[in-house]
Amino acid sequence: MKREDLKGILYTLVFAIAAYVLGGYFPIIGGPVFGILIGMLFARRRRPKSVESGIRFTGKKILQYAIILLGFEMNLFHVAEVGAQSLYVMIFTLIAAFSAAFLMGKALGLDRDMTSLVGAGTAICGGSAIAAVAPVIGAKDRDVVISIATIFLFNVLAVFIFPAIGHSWGMTDAGFGMWAGTAINDTSSVVAAGYAYSHEAGAYATIVKLTRTLMIVPVCLFFALLVSRRAKETGEGFSLRRIFPMFVLYFVLACIVNTTGVLPAEVSHGLGALGKFAIVMAMSAIGLNTDLASLVKNGLRPLALGLVCWIAVAGTSIVVQRALGLL
Q1: DSSP codes of every residue in 164-183
Q2: CB of 212 within 8 A of CB of 82?
Q3: How far are the Cα atoms of 267, 271, 287, 294 from residue 69, in angstroms, in the given order?
Q4: Which residues have C-beta within 8 Å of that of residue 79, sequence separation ≥ 6?
Q5: What sections of the protein cross the membrane (predicted)?
């Protein structure tokens, strides 16, 4: 971080605090979405040129630091415990999400970055996955905002729709927990839908969801390889840093540190909470650099893409669970 970035970081912090507080009052919406919205509201307001570099730094670098900090809430023992049952479901839902995103994105004429972000957000963990993939593929702020808004809409719908479907189909607590954990994107929405069904379903859905979050690592590496391959084909050169984004490595190390129990639980929880706040800061910065008019011009195509991906993931989770005898 350069000294001149500090003003912009502090400028963004003001909006992030407001968004974080609102996210606490309205957890289903969440701080990141409020950060984007508040940022966009003030994007066209006049601001000193001295804050611009800091806003860009917050939207790019602090976003990566946030992903690293989230690793301190991951316990690999819990991942191993749930992984045996949920791994196949997660693999097939990943394939379903990206296949649907690619095919529908092509049919709708959406660009590759938008398709990748919506696919990642649907397949893994909503805003966190989008935040992780965006710097790897070099996505524009505008594409990040649209994809997060799209994922947010279906997160909210899932909180109301999933429990009703689960009860009408007579799902077991474990079955519904697996379905919610693998087919709903954002953690807060998974928790809300799971506990709306039952306490047991909510607890299981939360563990499945946290396990699913680790899929950020292979997905980021996959996109990094694609980006490097394209760069090589276009003569832009080969970058080891692009093949293995360092923030993903540090995320894994944070997971390992938390699993060992070296850090007190309060410290790990505090670092994870700091990571969530850092995501709100980054989303506020992205909102501050987003032109609302350009979003409106984009129309309904991203929503159509998000809907198809959402249905593909939810349907695939049910089919695979039935095939494995988990429902």
Answers
A1: HHHHHTT--HHHHHHHHHHH
A2: no
A3: 11, 6, 22, 32
A4: 210, 211, 214
A5: 12-42, 62-80, 86-105, 117-138, 144-164, 203-227, 247-265, 277-296, 303-324
Distance of CA 135 to the CA centre of its chain: 13
More confident residue, 77 or 166: 166
102 to each of 15, 114, 308, 313, how far by Cα in Å? 35, 10, 11, 14
Distance in angstroms (rounded) separating the CA atoms of residues 205 and 174: 8
Confidence (pLDDT) at 117: 93
Crossing angle of helices 246-260 and 216-233, in 10° steps, is 160
| pLDDT value, residue 83 | 65
Structure-model confidence comparison of residues 75 and 9, the more confident one: 9
- pLDDT for 47-71, tens place per residue? 888 999 999 899 878 877 887 888 8
Q: Is 4 helix (H, G, I), strand (E, B) or coil?
A: coil
| Torsion sign (Cα): 289, 294, 300, 301 | negative
In the predicted structure, residue 314 carries a pLDDT above the cut 90? yes
- Both tokens of 180, joined, read 């919610």
d(CA 239, CA 227): 10
pLDDT in tens, 82-114: 666 778 888 899 999 999 999 999 999 988 889
Which has the closest alpha carbon to 101: 121, 111, 116, 90? 116
Q: Strand, coil or helix: what is 220?
A: helix
